[in-house]
Amino acid sequence: MQTNNEIQTILEKYDAPPRELLIPILQEIQESQGFLSRKTVTALARRMHLPTSKIYGVATFYNQFRFQKQGQFHIQVCRGTACHVKGSAAVLKAIQHELNIEPQQTTRDGLFSLEVVACVGACGLAPVLSIAGQVYSGVRPEKVKTILDSYRRKDAEHDPA
User: What is the distance between the alpha carbons of residues 41 and 110, in angstroms, rounded to a whole number?
Assistant: First the structure.
């Protein structure tokens, strides 16, 4: 994640930026910061001489923008047609129950974040989920805990208490 000074450097690259640069600037900030913080949105609004509500209005319209930091292990649950037909709603529900979070949220410990996506592009493997880029196919709700526990173990191995 970038420091406040690094975000300020991004903003300073744009001298009185026109409105049509709003989305590219938001993308650049999110790329460096990982998400759009309230502080960053406020600074951008000041820089662009726009109401903060306008920045949020644009950013919330597009699914690509996040307002919370992603977890160490970002989970994407495919809800495309093939995955839906094969039971991805039950897989999503199992993940939500196991982690006690909703889509677009991150667990309190910062380990997992959850996102629902329209299509992963692996329809023949439905239902599909991706965790930190690792794709799991034919996922069943009863396998969710086992899959998530494997990531908990990975985290524990890298950070023994």
Answer: 22
pLDDT per residue as tens digits for the range 112-158: 999 999 888 899 999 999 999 899 999 999 999 999 999 999 988 87
The answer to whether 77 and 120 have CB atoms below 8 angstroms apart is no
152 plus 98 within the same structural domain: yes
What is the average pLDDT value for the chain, to the nearest integer? 90
Q: Quote the domain boundaries for residue 54.
A: 4-61
